[in-house]
Amino acid sequence: MSTRTGILFVISGPSGVGKGTVRNAVMPLVDDLQMSISATTRAPRPGEVDGLDYFFVTPARFQQMIAGGELLEWAQVYGNLYGTPYEYVTSMLSQGRDVLLEIDIQGALQVKEKMPQGVFIFISPPSVEELSRRLCGRGNDSEESIQIRLAACQQEMDHIKYYDYVVVNDRVEDAVDKVRSIIMAERCKRKNLNLG
Ligand code: ADP
Ligand code: 5GP
Q1: For 18, 24, 90, 109, which has the most beta carbons within 10 A of its beta carbon?
Q2: For the chain, what is the domain count?
Q3: Residue 3 lies in a domain
């Protein structure tokens, strides 16, 4: 069993910037990294599996999780509720396991309050035009919801100052390489090595 406390990595950024894409590509490249599975009230998309992609819960159950202090953070993101299970994250960290969260900016700011020792990585779009192309290309969102996300992005960029790292997701391979490098560098920090 590890003698150090695990490191909490938080990947965040505007909707459509490629957080999920980068997270999914980084996970198989990094050993001993646990991915937290969020709870959400949104309906599963085709192919999504309960307990693997998300814990899909009813709004009533989500409210119960909030009231019971079961969530490290939670936020309403474009009409649905999302939250990070507190117990999973804290038990992994206390066992010395590193944990990766991929959450929206409101959630990341709450985690920063509670766990400022975490490593906060902002994924930024190369440009608003490219973000718009990605949101259109993803095919999940109506024209109206794309406009809402683009408007939010302008304000969300103001929160960059709360993050430790900024990774521009231009070519996905480069962004993945950078996030992987950040994880490796943080693991090599002397304070994270328990050298005394
Ligand atoms: P988020 O999780 O931040 O909302 P997604 O990972 O769902 O974003 O990505 C949004 C869309 O952009 C998806 O269709 C994805 O395939 C595409 N995408 C992600 N990264 C890149 C990239 N570097 N270049 C081009 N398209 C990308
Ligand atoms: P999607 O519905 O496309 O899977 O996710 C929508 C948004 O919710 C994404 O920006 C994603 O990062 C965010 N998200 C996913 N899980 C959580 C969570 O546990 N907490 C918060 N605050 N946001 C989350």
Answers
A1: 18
A2: 1
A3: no
Do residues 19 and 11 lie in contact, with contact meaning Cβ atoms separated by under 8 Å?
Answer: yes
Read off the CATH number of the domain in which 32 is found: 3.40.50.300
Tell which atom from ligand 1 comes closest to the C-alpha of 171: 23
CA of 183 to the centre of ligand 1 (A): 21
The whole-model pTM stands at 0.96
pLDDT digits (tens, 9 = 90+) for 4-52: 899 999 999 999 999 999 999 999 999 999 999 999 999 999 999 999 9
Residue identifier of the C-alpha nearest atom 22 of ligand 2: 107
CB neighbour list of residue 135: distance below 8 Å, 6 or more residues apart:
15, 16, 141, 146, 149, 150
Q: Is 185 inside any structural domain?
A: yes
